[in-house]
């Protein structure tokens, strides 16, 4: 009898543990579904005007992302068809006078994945509808003009998707870290950037600004990987090591830019980028959400389809 009671008690205890574990798993599953159903742009958005502390963001995190790398790669590929369709509709709508376009701004420390994003994410689009600009150090001609001059000249046309690999933010990042301009002039630039992006938005440009957030150690590993691969030596520069020494200064410069230039019409999105697969998935998802919000449509055309078909069939 005692053995029976003891065995029964163990069974009840096991059942209780199983029930509790099941409840925890269901809660975690519900939370995951809830996160994935929410807009990623709301989750990753930096709230302007509030202090930004980059050390509080985990560069290896995968907020609202797929379960693992394999699932992430599959999900990113799956978005490709939908992204391509929306891009084609945006391009087609411009033929009927729709002035809307999208500008993706990519900023981040060296090796954060700006080039990788262009390769893996923008590769999902038709190149004919994209305009990619990589910003290097200003040329002598560009230095003769206000800092936004070279940027204004390459903003996307109606129907296009523009991609900036680095951008006008270099002029408040590098310029701040290396003290290239007087501080009063530097402080003025944040306002000029906000005004510039406001004008873009009023003219039909959806501005999607992404900060690719990586860790100090991950950057070291990626730089070492370049040294280990002779095919990537061309990507390495001694200045990469010198700039690493200024990591805290760059983090502070980014924190200020994110705080002062994340506005209602042109917010910043912080994408954890230690995991390349998550970075690519997140940026694809952000682009998809913004293009779906635009919901571009093919223009209506006054065309007698049957008559055109008959004429073609009658033609030699």
Tags for this model:
316 residues; alpha/beta; Rossmann fold; 6-stranded mixed β-sheet; globular; disordered N terminus
Shape: globular
User: Which range does the strand content fall in?
Assistant: 5-15%
Report low-confidence residues grouped into runs of 5 or more. Answer: 1-10, 23-37
Compute the number of helices. Answer: 13
Q: Output the CATH homologous superfamily.
A: P-loop containing nucleotide triphosphate hydrolases
User: Structural class, from helix and strand content?
Assistant: alpha/beta
Helix-strand string? HHEHEHEHHEHHEHHHEHH
Number of β-strand runs:
6
**What is the terminal-to-terminal distance?**
99 Å
Strand order of the largest sheet: 1-6-5-2-4-3
Residue share in helix: 40-55%
The count of domains is: 1
Described by strand count, sense and barrel closure, the largest sheet is: 6 strands, mixed
Mean pLDDT: 89
CATH class: Alpha Beta
């Amino acid at each position: 009898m005692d053995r029976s009671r003891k065995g029964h008690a163990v069974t009840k205890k096991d059942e209780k543990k199983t029930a509790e574990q099941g409840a925890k798993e269901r809660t975690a599953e519900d939370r995951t579904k809830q996160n994935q159903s929410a807009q990623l742009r709301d989750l990753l958005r930096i709230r302007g005007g509030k202090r930004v502390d980059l050390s509080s963001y985990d560069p290896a995190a995968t907020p609202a992302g797929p379960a693992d790398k394999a699932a992430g790669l599959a999900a990113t590929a799956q978005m490709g068809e939908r992204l391509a369709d929306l891009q084609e509709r945006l391009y087609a709508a411009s033929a009927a006078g729709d002035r809307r376009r999208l500008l993706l701004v990519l900023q981040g420390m060296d090796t954060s994945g700006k080039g990788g994003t262009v390769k893996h994410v923008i590769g999902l689009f038709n190149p004919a509808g994209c305009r990619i600009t990589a910003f290097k150090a200003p040329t002598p001609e560009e230095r003769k003009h206000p800092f936004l001059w070279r940027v204004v000249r390459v903003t996307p046309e109606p129907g296009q998707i523009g991609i900036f690999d680095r951008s006008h933010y270099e002029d408040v990042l590098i310029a701040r870290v290396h003290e290239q301009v007087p501080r009063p002039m530097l402080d003025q630039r944040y306002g000029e950037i906000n005004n510039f992006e406001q004008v873009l938005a009023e003219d039909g440009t959806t501005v999607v600004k992404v900060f690719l957030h990586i860790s100090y150690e991950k950057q070291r590993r990626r730089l070492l990987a370049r040294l280990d691969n002779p095919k990537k030596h061309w990507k390495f520069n001694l200045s990469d090591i010198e700039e690493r020494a200024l990591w805290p200064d760059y983090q502070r410069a980014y924190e200020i830019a994110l705080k002062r230039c994340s506005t209602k019409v042109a917010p910043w999105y912080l994408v954890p980028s230690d995991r390349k697969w998550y970075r690519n998935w997140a940026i694809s998802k952000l682009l998809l959400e913004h293009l779906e919000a635009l919901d571009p449509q093919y223009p209506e055309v006054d065309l007698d389809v049957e008559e055109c078909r008959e004429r073609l069939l009658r033609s030699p």
